[in-house]
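Saturday, quiet lab. Running sequence design on the structure tokens for the scaffold JK sent over.
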């Protein structure tokens, strides 16, 4: 399927009123069955053009773009492979291919056996069969690049865009990658890639070269016509010199500024035609004319050979529903959680160890009237520990997940809301389980009231505190990078900790500061835990025999001194639920906004 673009302009704001013109009305056509290279020096606009053609960039763009003869702009026909190969490191090549196949192809179109056959065929074509059981995190650069291509070939897109597919590869891997793309193009696909500085062998493998300089098209034609084209404007490539290198040297103005002359010469469509024999370069620089009438010494493009018609790609398969994709993403997330021992096995072990240490530290403070202040302090320790251990992994995890999500959602593997819901439904049971294990240990070891209702109330508060922290971690991870997210997360936690009502009691705060305390999620968790342990209907605490007087024998004494109103447990729990829902909604909005902004 052909890609046609006309008069594409792209401007970006560099200041309040200044704008930078990245592309200046470039036009061209990328034909099916051809392998096209977009070249140019750094800052020429090649990546910007690729982003515009794929729809990755939409702001500040003018011009027309169409796919196919019908002139439609349905970008669902194309796939975009980014320069960085972001892959799930804990899955094997075969596993990630099957999951991508499940997300892209419905079971009504291909059954399980046919999907395995399709995956094996693609892996065999890209010579990845020998590393089927290798995890993605252990693949080499060339293997990762080929796997990224393989993932997008599952649904057989007619148009494939690649950004710098040879970056970071050695000459042998680069040559093999371009040969692979050339073979895929021969099957009838339109394949367009940006490339920086190819070798002579790699350069001659491109059917069509589109060169940019200062936002202008300075050449669009066959790679084999590069030397005659440059000769037509008086630029003669030295013998045994790589034509691609010489072309980039010209665009970098190493021999003078020829940008305008080349931009004018590139409008001649005859340079797309493949010459049968190499052209003879005249001894003296000719005077350029688009019709080649001013200089009889300049050879006109000879007749061309018509390439064989490419094989027509198979029709696209039916895609599964979003509900089916939700189940697949949940399965993928569960496997990832099980294999990532740092966020499951290690975290569970640390929770148990820390709960035991805290239980031994605070001892019988739950029933001893002389240790009531220590018991209240232990509530803050529980809240702060669960908050930090849940918040920080989310802050550090999502920036990398964002890169994978950006690639997969842009190529229409699934909707963003499907991924968000799958991630939430998968992480919530794990966070709840960790909180319950921690709560059960500390509740028993600190001798809290031996009542099932109070234990359930205590556990519910710690669970809510944990999932609210998970929501804040998601928000910071989708809104900020790792460094800023960690810093803001720590500052935000300290802010909420100060206003929880323990370090300074509510009765000692000014009215303004008491109003600010309502913004603290820790306030509601702390109040709910205090009410769980010291509500009015609790029996008197035990005063040791060696103590003459225990001030906090009556449970309501501690409530009165802390300024906590009896009967507010349900209000605090509901408020924590509201915090959880609100932060999840905000996180979803920031996630969509960040993906949209790129």
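Result came back. Writing it out in full:
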């Amino acid at each position: 399927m052909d890609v046609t673009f006309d008069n594409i302009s792209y401007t970006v704001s560099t200041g309040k009123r200044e704008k930078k013109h990245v592309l200046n009305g470039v036009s061209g056509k990328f034909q099916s069955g051809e392998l096209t290279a977009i070249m140019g020096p750094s800052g020429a606009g090649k990546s910007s053009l690729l982003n515009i053609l794929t729809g990755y960039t939409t702001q500040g763009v003018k011009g027309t773009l169409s796919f196919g003869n019908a002139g439609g702009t349905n970008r669902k026909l194309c796939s975009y492979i980014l320069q960085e190969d972001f892959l799930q490191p804990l899955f094997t090549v075969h596993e990630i291919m099957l999951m991508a196949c499940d997300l892209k192809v419905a079971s009504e179109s291909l059954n399980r056996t046919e999907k395995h056959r399709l995956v094996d065929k693609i892996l065999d074509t890209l010579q990845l069969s020998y590393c089927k059981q290798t995890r993605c995190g252990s693949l080499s650069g060339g293997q990762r690049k080929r796997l990224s291509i393989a993932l997008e070939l599952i649904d057989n897109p007619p148009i494939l865009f690649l950004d710098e597919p040879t970056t970071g590869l050695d000459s042998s891997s680069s040559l093999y990658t371009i040969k692979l793309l050339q073979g895929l193009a021969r099957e009838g696909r339109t394949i367009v890639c940006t490339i920086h500085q190819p070798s002579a062998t790699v350069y001659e493998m491109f059917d069509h070269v589109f060169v940019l300089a200062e936002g202008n098209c300075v050449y669009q034609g066959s790679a084999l016509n590069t030397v005659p084209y440059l000769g037509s404007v008086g630029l003669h490539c030295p013998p045994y010199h790589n034509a691609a290198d010489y072309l980039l040297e010209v665009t970098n103005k190493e021999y003078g500024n020829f940008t305008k002359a080349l931009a004018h010469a590139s409008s001649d469509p005859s340079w797309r035609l493949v010459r049968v024999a190499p052209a003879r370069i005249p001894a003296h620089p000719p005077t350029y004319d688009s019709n080649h009438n001013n200089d009889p010494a300049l050879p006109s493009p000879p007749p061309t050979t018509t390439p064989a018609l490419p094989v027509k790609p198979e029709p696209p398969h039916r895609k599964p529903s979003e509900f089916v994709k939700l189940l697949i993403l949940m399965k993928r997330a569960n496997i990832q959680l099980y294999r990532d021992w740092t966020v499951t096995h290690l975290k569970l072990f640390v929770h148990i160890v820390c709960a035991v240490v805290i239980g031994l530290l605070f001892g019988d403070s739950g029933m001893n009237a002389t240790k009531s202040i220590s018991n209240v302090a232990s509530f803050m320790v529980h809240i702060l520990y669960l908050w930090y251990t849940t918040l920080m992994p989310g802050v550090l995890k999502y920036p990398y997940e964002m890169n994978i999500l950006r690639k997969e959602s842009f190529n229409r593997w699934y909707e963003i809301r499907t991924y968000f819901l799958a991630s939430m439904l998968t992480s919530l049971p794990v966070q709840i389980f960790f909180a319950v294990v921690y709560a059960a240990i500390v509740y028993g070891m600190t001798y809290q009231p031996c009542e099932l209702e109070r234990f359930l109330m205590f556990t519910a508060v710690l669970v809510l505190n944990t999932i609210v922290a998970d929501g804040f971690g998601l928000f910071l991870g989708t809104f900020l990078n790792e460094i800023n997210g960690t810093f803001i997360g720590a500052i935000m936690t300290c802010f909420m900790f100060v206003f929880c009502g323990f370090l300074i009691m509510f009765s000692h705060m000014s009215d303004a500061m008491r109003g600010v305390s309502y913004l603290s999620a820790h306030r509601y968790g702390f109040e709910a835990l205090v009410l769980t342990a010291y509500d009015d209907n609790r029996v008197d605490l035990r005063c040791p025999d060696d103590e003459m007087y225990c001030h906090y024998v009556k449970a309501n004494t501690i409530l009165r001194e802390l300024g906590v109103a009896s009967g507010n447990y349900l209000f605090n729990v509901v408020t924590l639920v509201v915090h959880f829902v609100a932060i999840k909604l905000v996180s979803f909005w920031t996630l969509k906004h960040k993906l949209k902004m790129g």
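Notes for JK: The two ends are 27 Å apart (CA to CA). The beta strands are 3-13, 19-30, 35-39, 61-67, 78-81, 159-163, 190-194, 208-213, 216-221. Ask whether to fix the surface positions before the next round.
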